[in-house]
Inverse folding.
């Protein structure tokens, strides 16, 4: 059974797929402005769905929804890194990202902590 978040997850996943398909790497990395947009509009949106679901009454995602949400977040983290000229195959937990957001209160910090991009910023 799908959760009440299925439409939000579908939108985030569709946007991530579109961003991935249309992505053109910057000629001269970094493209920090675009990297931050991927953080706010992608990583932040995915983590927000997870946090919303975990707040108050925990509305469980079904496995497919959760996998789709996590894949979308990781796609956005890949795109974030590519804006810095770094190729990743991100495979991070949305729970870990949510915990980092609660600690830092900044989605750009979450991306830096998880990916280590820009170089020297990896903390976990």
């Amino acid at each position: 059974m799908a959760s009440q978040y299925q439409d939000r997850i579908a939108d985030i996943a569709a946007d991530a797929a579109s961003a991935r398909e249309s992505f053109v790497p910057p000629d001269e990395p970094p493209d920090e402005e675009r990297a931050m947009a991927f953080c706010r509009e992608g990583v932040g949106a995915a983590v927000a769905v997870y946090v919303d679901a975990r707040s108050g009454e925990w509305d469980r995602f079904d496995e497919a929804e959760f996998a789709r949400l996590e894949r979308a977040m990781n796609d956005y983290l890949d795109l974030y890194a590519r804006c810095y000229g770094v190729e990743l195959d991100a495979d991070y937990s949305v729970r870990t990202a949510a915990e980092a957001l609660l600690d830092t209160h900044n989605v750009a910090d979450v991306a830096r902590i998880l990916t280590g991009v820009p170089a020297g910023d990896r903390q976990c």
